[in-house]
Amino acid sequence: MKELFNATKERMEKSLVALNNEFNSIRAGRASAASLDRISVDYYGAPTPINQMAAISVTDGRTLVIQPWDKTSLDSICKAIQASELGINPQNDGVVIRLNFPQPTEERRRELVKEASKKAEDAKVAIRSIRRDSMDKLKAMKKDSVITEDDQRDGEKQLQDITDKYVKEIDVMYAKKEKEILEI
Description:
Layout: H1 2-25, E1 40-43, E2 46-49, E3 54-60, E4 63-68, H2 74-83, E5 91-92, E6 97-100, H3 106-143, H4 149-182
Antiparallel strand pairs: 1-2, 3-4, 4-6, 5-6
Helix pairs in contact: 1-3, 1-4, 3-4
């Protein structure tokens, strides 16, 4: 049964990591290198993440500077950013690329909070689905007489406690992201 709990925790942990990555992709008006994580550049025929082609730095709260190690890749990085969902026009001065993140409007911030809320809810659904799978495994173990009915009941309670812990963690992550989005 211990293996079942460890596997459940591991799968739930992966859901939290995925949610954190989703939250990092939500732009809250602040410059963040993580906002470029999902953008790949066609570099000599291979899709390459920007962070593997260039040094990325935040100069002030709203500006990202991308300094490619290979100056010939400046144009392809600009094209990849323009084609992405980022919605920011890169400024190429021949040496570095600057991305200026505008201050989001109140309406846009509300949309971002809704988006973050949806992603948090999706993560909770994933956590509950993992719990359901683990509960089914417990029932199968009981049916196969591997564990007793008392062990099954204790296991179900333990799985619920694990689930509650991860759902609470998702709530904390969401509250933090909401605060970040709504800050002016």
